[in-house]
Amino acid sequence: MNTDNKTKKGKAIEHYIIYELLKNDFDVFVPVVDTGTDLIIKDREGGLVEIQVKSREIKDDQDVFFIKDFTPSHKFFIVCHNTNTGDFFCMPSKKFHQMSKINEKGQRVMTYKDIEIRSDYTKNQNGIALLKKALES
Hints:
The chain is an alpha+beta fold. 32% of the residues lie in helices and 31% in strands. It has 4 helices and 9 strands, in the order αββββββαββαβα. It has helices at residues 6-23, 93-99, 112-117, 124-136; strands at residues 27-29, 39-42, 48-56, 64-68, 76-82, 88-92, 101-102, 107-111, 122-123. A 6-stranded mixed beta sheet has the order 1-2-3-5-6-9. Strands 4-8-7 form a 3-stranded antiparallel beta sheet. The protein starts with 5 loop residues before the first helix and ends with a helix. 28% of the residues are buried.
């Protein structure tokens, strides 16, 4: 990405995730106001899942994804995107909440290494499958 503007980078990654969801036949909605939910996906029966997208340029395994503290829910997922590789990991917010730590700013943080090695989290197309399963429950 050629811009150093974090807002533009974040929005571009959100649109990349929207692209991935659309090509996998999700109905995707974008809230007018970002209050911790970047995207909402819906199935044909009306089930909804909220998604928070986070992206980072990962330089080493100790780089972290950070999210403003939140209330976990089985219908709220975190998508962490590595801008260097294009890989993204989808995880239930309950897992992120459970495995993350609170930093001095009150944000939940988890290292890239912790995200990558946990078998609970799923990468790329496996993450898409996890979101489909969440809509079914």
